[in-house]
Design goal:
This protein is α/β, with parallel strands linked by helices. Helix content is about 55%, strand content about 20%. The chain has two domains: about 180 residues, no CATH class; about 100 residues, Nucleotidyltransferase, domain 5 (2-Layer Sandwich), CATH 3.30.420. The chain contains nine helices and eight strands. The protein has a four-stranded mixed beta sheet.
């Protein structure tokens, strides 16, 4: 008796091997399932028939078998097809990016998907397949994805859009960093050494090599008429350091998420000029204040 026919343009070995594993459970109960394979154009079709001496009705085996198929197809789509689907979305929706940029976006999207709940995506597909197989014995996976998994494809598009946003923000940031490096490189240093005392709040104090507080003349005009609530101390610190362009910068700070971005920016702009101090009295005072 015929159970089901499954067609696909790819990963047919995955389907066959996974179903073979499931069949072993039924074979132990005296159920024999036979697979017939047929190629037609780009498609390969797997047809399955069942033979049993048991009194259990054929419909019971068909229902169980279709549950196996639904589980396998949900694993197949998320585990094998997803990268191809994402690549196609990027190609269609963001065709104006270069191939290198598309590859970066692809990797970002796949990383986001790895961090997301793949079980939830699989379950959505699982229920769609089960619902379809209740009234159908023939399933072509390519067409099923295109026409029956539109919500899933829409979710993938949303993740791609997020990856593109991250990519553009990183690109803008890197261009900004290159510009700041250029400003640093073209001017003569006004100090050999600057110590930066950076608090988690963003407030900072600059010292010269003799531990004297550096005058705030480098900040004049940067905060003129700005309300305190609108002052971006990270930008002020970067601006001051670029103006001074010291040959060496020693950062005294507390390791915490509040200072992570500004530390990364300083390191990206000034490169090997930057050293992070973690054990002097200034650092210990910062830890005490924090």
């Amino acid at each position: 008796m015929s159970l089901i026919s499954i067609g696909s343009t790819r990963h047919i070995d995955f389907i066959r091997n996974r179903l073979d594993d499931e069949f072993k459970l039924l074979q132990a109960e005296g159920v024999q399932i036979y697979c017939k394979e047929k190629a037609s154009g780009n498609y390969t079709f797997l047809g399955f028939d069942v033979e049993t001496d048991q009194d259990t009705s054929f419909n019971s085996y068909r229902t169980l078998f279709k549950q196996y198929v639904a589980k396998i197809i949900s694993d197949l789509v998320v585990g094998k097809w997803e990268e191809k689907l994402v690549s196609r979305i990027i190609k269609n929706n963001y065709h104006y990016f270069t191939n290198e940029e598309k590859n970066i976006i692809l990797e970002k999207t796949l990383e986001m998907l790895r961090l997301d709940n793949s079980i939830q995506r699989k379950n959505k597909i699982l229920f769609k397949v089960i619902d379809y197989l209740e009234n159908n014995d023939d399933l072509i996976i390519d067409g099923f994805i295109k026409f029956r998994l539109k919500e899933y494809l829409s979710d993938l598009e949303d993740v791609v859009d997020r990856a593109v946003e991250d990519f553009l923000m990183e690109k803008e940031y890197n261009e900004f960093i290159r510009l700041l490096r250029y400003f640093v490189d073209i001017q003569d240093p006004r100090a050999e050494l600057v110590h930066v005392l950076l608090k988690p709040s963003g407030l900072f104090t600059l010292y010269d090599g003799n531990q004297n507080v550096i005058s705030n003349e480098y900040l004049e005009g940067l905060i003129f008429d700005l309300p305190t609530s609108e002052i971006n101390y990270e930008d002020l610190l970067i601006s001051a350091l670029i103006t001074i362009a010291p040959r060496q910068i020693i950062l005294h700070t507390v390791k915490c998420y509040q200072t992570k971005n500004v530390i990364n920016t300083i390191q990206n702009v000034f490169g090997d000029r930057v050293t992070i101090c973690e054990g002097c009295p200034k650092c210990k005072n910062l830890n005490f204040e924090f």
